[in-house]
Design a protein that fits this description.
Chain lengths: 197, 290
């Protein structure tokens, strides 16, 4: 049945021929979605500029929206659809007047307990620096970069999540890489970098 | 030079620029910890949403409670959602679950009508008939009927699907006489941040946990809004800095509307919006008051 549906549909523009992991022809039940994706959507929200003290509410809102809209889901990839909701909610959140820009101190609880205090401080500093570099990107480039490089969506999934052509996704990721490279590794020898295009 | 549309291929950064990829690696650690995930689970369950077994946090080191669950306490599987917001009673929970022979899926504790969710016997004392569980007014009904894990392989960095755990519904403490007063909001709690504050602990080992109280309140909402309101007020008294203040207020406003106390509902909703301007329940609240 599902195979018939797949072959009867024309391939979307820029779509990959073989389904990538996460590309589904029928949406799973909500519990499965929650188990597989909730914590990664949380992470995406934070890397899209949401502070940890707001991540709980935002992630819940994403889940409520997904739960409400799942019966009418008609996209190709549930993962792309979920991350698309995340990007829109994070964008709304960042634009709201009440959002305060705070020094990020999140994510470090996830590091191993064996880390020394010095290591923790160093990692905290590096995370802060990295998030500041992401903050300096425009919203569109940041979203494409985070979904592709951190969340490891496919290019086609990022295109679907952001509702922009594949070529635009490609350009945004490349531009984000260049900006981050200039900020985070300005003095490094670039001979090891193998960028294409 | 940009490739043609049908030949896009962009190697991952880790392949093309390991140095920059290393700088960015910490972004992957921005995951919720176990208590944050469990709180998220509890809040969704209180909205009548079936989430089955909560996901297991990916990289957080095991907390003492997780160790307990995996160790001796693991003899009885307990949904994370229940211990996260009321974790102070492992012994009592174990005794209760051991005493009750029939376990129900954890995900159905307050969710799907078909799953046999029920109000606790203590709460039903105040009511004449069994409660027909249903979604909170203004809340979308659950759509997922099957909570069974799929055979679909998870994404590479997704958690492996654990087999469904089971849990029995803990019993709430006896109800006091209804004294529906104007409860103040507790903006310091309300699902902000993660972890479990010591202020959220019940004063005695027999007191119901936050989620027990609010699950009973939600289940009572349709049959007996007065009971639901009393349970919400009891939550306010017992957990003035609780993590589930937003859920409590949503139930309380729903109950006030059902009781015809629209002015009180409007006042309470106004305080809610002031205390929780970013709440995910803004739309639901507006629909309730429409």
């Amino acid at each position: 049945m599902l195979g018939d549906q797949k072959t009867s549909l024309p391939p979307p523009r820029g779509a990959v021929e073989e389904p990538e992991p996460g590309i589904l022809t029928a949406p799973p039940a909500f519990p499965e979605i929650f188990q597989q994706h909730a914590q990664f959507l949380w992470r995406a929200l934070m890397n899209l500029g949401v502070q940890r003290h707001d991540a709980q509410d935002l992630c819940q809102e994403v889940m409520l929206i997904a739960h409400r809209r799942l019966p009418t889901f008609q996209g190709r990839s549930v993962r792309a659809w979920l991350y698309g909701i995340c990007v829109r909610k994070a964008s709304e959140h960042r634009r709201s007047a009440r959002v305060r820009r705070e020094v990020p101190s999140d994510g470090l609880d996830q590091l191993g307990q064996e880390e020394t205090q010095h290591d923790l401080l160093e990692q905290r500093h590096r995370l802060r620096r990295t998030l500041a570099a992401l903050d300096a990107l425009d919203e569109a480039k940041r979203a494409a970069f985070v979904l592709y490089e951190v969340e490891e969506l496919t290019l086609a999934e990022v295109s679907e999540a952001l509702d922009v052509p594949l070529q635009t996704v490609y350009s945004r990721i490349k531009a984000a890489r260049e900006a981050l490279r200039a900020t985070l590794t300005p003095n490094r020898d670039k001979r090891g970098v193998r960028e294409t295009g | 030079v940009k490739p043609a549309d049908d030949s896009f291929d962009l190697p991952r950064l880790v392949e093309t620029d390991p140095g920059l990829a290393e700088e960015l690696a910490l972004l992957k650690t921005q995951l919720p910890d176990a208590s944050e995930l469990a709180l998220l689970t509890s809040r969704l369950q209180l909205q009548g949403i079936d989430v089955a077994t909560p996901p297991v946090a990916q990289t957080a080191p095991p907390s003492p409670w997780q160790k307990w669950l995996l160790g001796g306490g693991g003899a009885v599987a307990i949904g994370l959602g229940l211990w996260a917001v009321g974790p102070a009673k492992p012994t009592a929970l174990t005794e209760r679950t051991a005493a009750l022979p029939s376990a129900i899926p954890a995900a159905s504790s307050a969710a799907t009508p078909a799953s046999g969710a029920r109000i606790s016997p203590r709460a039903t004392r105040a009511e004449a008939a069994p409660v027909q569980p249903g979604p909170v007014d203004g809340v979308a009904p659950p759509v997922a009927e099957a909570a069974a894990p799929s055979a679909t392989a998870p994404p590479s960095d997704s958690p492996a699907l654990a087999p469904p755990r089971t849990v029995t519904l803990p019993l709430s403490a006896p109800l006091r006489e209804a004294e529906p007063g104007a409860a103040s909001l507790a903006p310091t709690g309300g699902g902000r941040g993660g972890g479990v504050s010591s202020g959220a602990r019940p004063p005695s080992i027999d007191a119901p946990t936050e989620i027990e109280l609010l699950r009973d309140a939600r289940l009572a909402l349709k049959r007996s809004p007065a009971t639901a309101l009393e349970l919400a007020e009891r939550h306010t008294r017992t957990y003035p800095s609780g993590k589930l203040a937003q859920e409590r207020e949503l139930i309380a406003v729903s109950a006030l509307i059902a009781l015809g106390r629209r002015t009180a509902a409007l006042g309470r909703a106004a305080r809610f919006e002031q205390a929780f301007p970013q709440s995910p329940y803004r739309k639901q609240l507006a629909e309730l008051l429409r």
